[in-house]
Amino acid sequence: MRDVVIAGVGSTTFGKHTDRSIESLAVSAAAQAIVESGIDRQRIGALYLGNFISGPLNGKEVLAGIVGDQLGLPNIPCTKVEGACASGGIAFRHAWIAIASGMCDAALVVGVETMTHGSTSQVTAALNCAMDNENDGKSGLTFPGLFGLAWRVHAERYGTTRDQVSAVVRKNKGNGLRNPLAQMGKDLTDEQIASSAMICDPLQLYDCCPASDGAAAILLVAKSIAKETSSVPIDILAAIQTRGSARIAGHPDLGTFEATVSAAERAYAQSGLGPGDIDVVELHDCFSIAEIIDSEDLGLVPRGEGAIWAAEGRTGNGGDVAINASGGLLSKGHPVGATGVGQIYEIVHQLRGTHPNQVANARIGMTHNLGGTGVACTVSILRRGDA
Amino acid sequence: MRDVVIAGVGSTTFGKHTDRSIESLAVSAAAQAIVESGIDRQRIGALYLGNFISGPLNGKEVLAGIVGDQLGLPNIPCTKVEGACASGGIAFRHAWIAIASGMCDAALVVGVETMTHGSTSQVTAALNCAMDNENDGKSGLTFPGLFGLAWRVHAERYGTTRDQVSAVVRKNKGNGLRNPLAQMGKDLTDEQIASSAMICDPLQLYDCCPASDGAAAILLVAKSIAKETSSVPIDILAAIQTRGSARIAGHPDLGTFEATVSAAERAYAQSGLGPGDIDVVELHDCFSIAEIIDSEDLGLVPRGEGAIWAAEGRTGNGGDVAINASGGLLSKGHPVGATGVGQIYEIVHQLRGTHPNQVANARIGMTHNLGGTGVACTVSILRRGDA
After folding, report:
1. Number of Cβ atoms within 10 Å of the Cβ of A356
2. Reported ipTM exceeds the 0.85 cut
3. Residues B64, B65, B69, B70: is their CA dihedral positive or negative?
4. Tens digit of pLDDT for each residue in A25-76?
């Protein structure tokens, strides 16, 4: 497999774009990534588009072909991939494969979702398409239900408290204030968090990421042509995708996601790096407790100490490892298909040294995108090319 | 890229399976392909699932992960791909890439759709997700409208008649009678076809493929391990995917599909073969006129002579090239995500010499899967491995 680098990135703001079509968001982000890369769009050899619920919510499929058409790309394979909330990460990995395998020298990834164009009940029903509804659906256990259970497991096992989890919320909501792309950064106190509306005990309002519209895009090229690009190249050291159980009852332990654990192990093996090498991480904090579990599953924090590290500020900028300096899903928003691609966007800016909430001396970055009840996961490791 | 062979195939019947879930159809076909291959499922390194409208119609996404879970596959990448009616062909190509690139030695493809579980209006609305609705949707031009226009272009240019097009219908409906997987084989006369209900002038009832439920699956392995499999290996000589215009107004000529023309050109180049080498073809006859246009676009028939060849029986079994010996979409049915995979299933049986409607001495086969308004296309060329 050939070496692949990131040559350009683009993103819309995440938030409410009720006046814009899903295609126009995708095209905006993609055009930005193409222009930034300096690569002629006629050289792009593949397009992968990550999207989850445009079919049920917008009545729109074949979005990859539509976006490829609107961008004026050549007559290339344009493919939509879907893996619930991991759709964006899966799209990124397939663009990497297209180049690493030698099939083309440049490939475009777009992640996109619109979620504010329908009613809350429509969006909730659409999100539940990510469940194994034949098995789990009848239990009535939605995603807040699953992550509420995960919190209870973590609390019973490790004594995790409301205030420890609130430290994740305060950090990510605060980081979002420094990210102009974020949907809802906010300065919050423990009291405000603890008194916010109960969503699914113990998850309260600020523990849950918002529904969002948005798009992000990445232009990848073979390292052999990286010198033709106009940006600081970012090396892709690992691009891993795994599967976990599709059924909640299929997880032997709700305090961990096996798909994350195995994806991280393989990403470290592929890159030749270890958790201690990672400077900045964008991980899948769809709920506050998810960040704590993910940080342990990725090996960034010792098992059982995720809440302690969060409370001690060891996962903030300037801490042992900077987690979700972008604000994460909690603050940046979670336009599902865009999320995994947006994570890459954020890490690229950190490694270039151009992030609005910059982590000092960031050299190695990681992204982690988790789908459904842990049924799909991607982990990527990136490095500043001239490091 | 490494050589890849087909080691096992499976398929449900195409038709009405209103008593079965989409997952159970997918698992049935996949299990058959795995067992037939003789490959231990723990060696499978990737799963690609082609599906179009399970989200809008069934409220079910992440089907790749769910099916991988139910099959007991290892913790591997499980990816749904979507490209409207070409979803199945796209899934096949990606399994080929997974092995050809060296990422794994065995990969599973499943194509699946259910369409009889909703009302006709729900299915029609879902099918229109394959249109660029921001641009074409407001014109009211559904798919019968597009292919009705294509027929008019062909008729004006080449004098194509109702009876010539009926020859395609008679052939494919008749072939379906000899295929136990087919939804609606039928012995038809020109009079019966010409007096059937008008759908969208000049398309009448028997010119249109039915809505169907069904699944098909293929197990691919690296040629280097082909001797470990229990079936006659089928070589994959070409696996091509292209894009055409997403907008009807973006097609310079409605008498041809540019995505098919370019896919065929590339498939011939990749395989080192030409149209004259092809013995059996499964092509995308979503409407009778589509078979005529496709046969020209693929170079199998001289431009403008598709209707003449059909009327002269040159595309039947024993003719110059056997097209849709399975009955095609017209007769076999069109469970959208399954169609492209089902085409491979049919050609594999032709090349093994085990097809219920066997073409004598079939050695080289081709499949052609077209999505939306020609926005996505796949063409594959297969060869009997010991030929």
Report:
1. 14
2. yes
3. negative
4. 999 999 999 999 999 999 999 999 999 999 999 999 999 999 999 999 999 9
* CB-CB under 8 Å, B80 with A83: yes
Token pair for B137: 């949707």
Q: Which residues pair with A110 in a beta bridge?
A: A49, A217
Superfamily of domain A131-208+235-384: Thiolase/Chalcone synthase (3.40.47.10)
Q: How far is A338 from chain B (nearest CA, A)?
A: 16
A31 reaches B (C-beta below 8 A) = no
Does domain B132-206+238-384 match CATH 3.40.47.10?
Answer: yes
Domain spans, chain B: 4-119+211-234, 132-206+238-384
Helices A288-297 & A143-158 angle (0-180, nearest 10): 60
| Residues of A with a known catalytic role | 85, 334
- Number of CB pairs, chain A paired with chain B, less than 8 A apart: 196
| B124 touches A: beta carbon within 8 Å | no
Alpha carbons A12 and A24: distance in angstroms, whole number: 10
For B106, phi and psi rounded to 5 degrees?
A: -145, 140
Interface probe, candidates B1, B53, B54, B243, chain A, greatest A C-beta count within 10 A: B243
Check if A246 contacts B (Cβ < 8 Å). yes
> Mind listing the pLDDT tens digit for each residue in B174-218?
999 999 999 999 999 999 999 999 999 999 999 999 999 999 999
Domain A4-119+211-234 - what CATH class? Answer: alpha beta
Of the candidates B78, B85, B104, B208, the residue annotated as catalytic is B85
B85 is an active site residue: yes
pTM assigned to the model:
0.98
B337 touches A: beta carbon within 8 Å: no
